Amino acid sequence: MNVLGSRRAFRMRVAEPEPGRVLTEADLDTDLLTTFTVTPVAANRCSVTIATEWQQPRGLGGWLQGLTMPAFMRRIYQAELRQLDEYAQTQS
Q: pTM for the whole thing?
């Protein structure tokens, strides 16, 4: 993945705590945890929520992460949701 102009590899553990409804990705090198939750809302329709929890480091680096991480993650989530929607449209 390209992160702020540099290429970075992530090692993630994927789990499905609620099969068919909740999927989690845990970064093996940090405390970052992302949860994907699918909720049916109508016939052949659902809502997908993506949420990330992470402990912001202390100091200047942590402060900068706190400023940049939300916008960075929002762009990733928007791209993921577009991909999910495109895939779902081909399935109906």
A: 0.76
